[in-house]
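Figure S7 source data.
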Amino acid sequence: MSIEQQYRTRAKELLSAGEVKMVIGYGAGTTAERRRPLFITSPDETERLVLDSACIANLSGYLVTEGLLSDEKRVAVFLRPEGIRALNVLAAEAQLDPLQVVIIGFDLPKGELKALQGSSVDDFTALLGALKESTPDVDGRELLEKIEKMSPEERFAFWQEEFSKCIKCYACRQACPMCYCRRCIVDSNQPQWVNTSSHTLGNFEWNIVRAFHLSGRCVECGNCDRACPVNIPLRLINRKMAQEVLDSFNHFAGTSKTQEPVLASFKKDDSETFIL
Amino acid sequence: MTKILFTDKLDSCVERWRSAGMTVIGPVQRANSSVYGAVKSASELDLNLVLTDRSIKELFFPQSEPMLRYAITKAEINTDEFLPPSGPRIIFGARACDASGLAIDDPLFGWDYKDEYWFQRRNESVIVTIACTKADEFCMCTSLKLSPDSTKGSDILLRPLENNKGWQVEELTDRGREAFKSVADLLQEGSDPAAATVTVPEKFNADACAEWLKNPENFESRFWKEISARCIGCGSCTYLCPTCHCFDIQDEGGSFEGIRRKNWDSCSFALFTMHTSGHNPRSTQSARWRQRIMHKFNYFPGKFSANSCSGCGRCTRECPVDMGITETLQEISKLSQ
Ligand code: SF4
Ligand code: SF4
Ligand code: SF4
Ligand code: SF4
Ligand code: SF4
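Tokens for the predicted iron/sulfur cluster complex:
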């Protein structure tokens, strides 16, 4: 039986037994290559679930949809390791109770679909621990290396060009499972902290604020990058910040549901390389 | 006999227009994304795209536009108005859906108040549209009673030649004729056949949808919740849309000194209808999605007798969760049968 078929059966069993009220998975999209989020609430509809190498979006963000988990019922969700990390961060930041989430795990090493065993975040501790030790295989590594070699002026010019395209649609924010604030700082207008205009300053402010707010929290799922309609390589910023946080604080976001948020914690032995 | 503009003459045309003081604008690649941008030579133009990522709208209605500078002192309030930049422009290589998008928005910007920022730019721009010989699965102009060679909103329509060496020139307006007079000697009379325009299948029945949307009973239909459950409210569909025209006015700077700007806004955002009291009359994403569809296919046509959509398909092409208006209207077509 294909993994897709096995997982459809599992979804059907979970719904039939009343163990979950909803399965969040993937369905066919407008074109043959596209997949879209799908919300299944009836066992008869589980055949609509699709699982293949095109299922790359991180669906964990839907778990914090207002009211979804407030009745204490459980929801099952298709997640890759990045999605499981996101779930841990959300739990650690008290956004949800991981006991309400049944993980239907899978991975796509080299584009090949692979089933992951386990159903609750704790079942994946070893897997995530191993991920921390491995060198991530990010898209655009070459570009990142190129940027690292640039002089500050060149680097600034590179990002200025990229950010000049930003139309401030906030698709990056909306697509990110870590951007769950009911009111984002850029939506605050009394006082207005950040310029809403998409001029150079406003765009820099937005993209830098977001990069800071995601430091030590981004799970590198790539949702933001894929959502950006003007193809700004947002993954490079997040990758850079993740690396800084790992090097400075030995912190890899989303390894456990009780992990302390790095920017909200203080340890006596934190290296003090920039605050004197 | 038809006037023909051969591709190898385009560069001389660009030069001619530029030396006559016109800014020449067309589809270009900019840092991995396609936009309408100013060019110095024809070689910079990217005319093989199905469609640019960003629409033509920002050339007329920029995403952020300064309106006035204010300075408040104890004794007085000083304001300096910013006027829209002036100067003739020729936009070469628009698509029919983008050009029609401008025409769709004209009545809106000229209705109870004449928006100078829009009309000055409209009056100073020549829109040269190239009929489409290719499309993708998201194109749907024909569903909106338009076509790949629609002339709506264009000053010149160019039909690509079958041999791919140039275009047949169709002059549609005086402004178009004027701009092409200056390059008259670069055009040739000819009988080279034009390539067939691409066939774009009709995806939904806009009239049937309008009927369904008009029925007040359908306002509270469960349909809205179901169809929009995955919408993340990112607003990129509205920002990329050539016909969406919502904006917000913001003061930037301090209380005593700053700049008042007009910025794009979107009904997909929760903040769009948020009251100062904290109450939000469109408190769910499904209500916001309903607004988007209602506005485009019910309220707007009710007022201006045209759908606020030209079928470019950008809303679907770029939606991170594969929504967009096509599927919604397809489903409404089914419901209204
Ligand atoms: S910032 Fe981007 S990559 Fe990181 S968690 Fe958010 S969406 Fe995923
Ligand atoms: S998705 Fe891209 S264009 Fe939209 S706000 Fe984010 S960076 Fe800017
Ligand atoms: S329909 Fe798509 S592009 Fe539009 S707001 Fe919703 S998620 Fe964003
Ligand atoms: S609603 Fe969609 S298809 Fe219609 S004009 Fe806007 S972006 Fe294009
Ligand atoms: S659909 Fe929404 S954003 Fe677009 S014009 Fe209408 S109200 Fe404005």
